[in-house]
Amino acid sequence: MKEIGGYMEIEHYNGTEYYSNLLHLNTGRNAIVLAALEKQYTKIWIPHYLCDCVSLALNKNGIDFDYYNLNSNFEPDQFNTVCRDGVAILLVNYFGMFNNDSLVKKQKRFGNIIVDNTHSFFQSPVSSIDTIYTARKYFGVPDGAYLHLTCPSKYYENLEDDYSHIRMNYLAGRFECSANQFYDEFCISDRCLEHEKIKKMSSLTKNILCSIDYDRVILKRTENFNVLHNALKSINQYEVLNHGGLYMYPLLLNNGYLIKRQLIEKKVYVPTLWPNVLKDCFLDSYEYYLANNMLFLPIDQRYDCTDMQYMLNIIEAFL
């Protein structure tokens, strides 16, 4: 029976999601798994430089996987396999460095591919390539992912809906208080997602995603990116190719881990992507070097050019 009256809930927004036409799922890792299941892949090649939540999700769903290394262009290094007959390769579009023309060429080279656009939310999918997006990296939502699937789905309609209200407290707390006060709750929520099976995106998350001014988000991220890039491109060991709407600004320096400490002490929270790489890879591997020294500087829509200059002052003082 429908409830009428009583206390008010969160407002229902009438805007449009950025990817309203894609499959709506609860997490990016589950979007990868669903793409594999839909295409009947029994094995996925994944990069070492990646969160271990992906390998855990693949293993949980009975999908075999193996690792490949990256070269300095963030492409598979010495990987000559053409993926056919139930095998695919997961290509992570790190920092949006692969445009769609490049991805088409990689599809011709590698065969079956799944593209992870977690770092490039606003890069539209190639029609012929299965592509995943994660909303949580870009917006204040507790979960949520999108999947562009290149075949009719056999499983999606029968998936149960996720529920997000139990994961909202740290977001509301961060809105009114400091990040430190609710960081433990954020970590607990993050760990809880590891155990979530494949579900449809919650109605609460979808509602929030209907409230966002996406044009403003792209503009702010691009403006902030440009401030950092103009100041840092001459010392950045990584050649940034995408200048629009990125996740964060990637700055690679020999002593990046030391600068990271300085930034965190000044309450500039620079994440390590991904800490499991520091445990799983050899000290002399390129993946270990990246995980240890790549600085991911915040450029999101909460900040402006003044905030970018504050970060630059800290980095320049250290250098």
Structure description:
With 319 residues, the chain is α/β, with parallel strands linked by helices. Helices cover 37% and strands 13% of the residues. It contains 11 helices and 9 strands. The protein has helices at residues 28-38, 52-60, 100-110, 169-176, 179-193, 203-209, 214-232, 256-265, 275-280, 286-293, 305-318, and strands spanning 23-25, 43-47, 64-68, 87-92, 113-116, 130-134, 145-148, 248-252, 294-298. The protein has a 7-stranded mixed beta sheet with strand order 1-7-6-5-4-2-3, with helices on both faces. Strands 8-9 form a two-stranded antiparallel sheet. Helix 7 (214-232) runs parallel beside helix 11 (305-318). The relative contact order is 0.14. The mean pLDDT is 94.
Write the layout of secondary structure elements.
Blueprint: E1 23-25, H1 28-38, E2 43-47, H2 52-60, E3 64-68, E4 87-92, H3 100-110, E5 113-116, E6 130-134, E7 145-148, H4 169-176, H5 179-193, H6 203-209, H7 214-232, E8 248-252, H8 256-265, H9 275-280, H10 286-293, E9 294-298, H11 305-318
Helix pairs in contact: 1-2, 4-5, 7-11
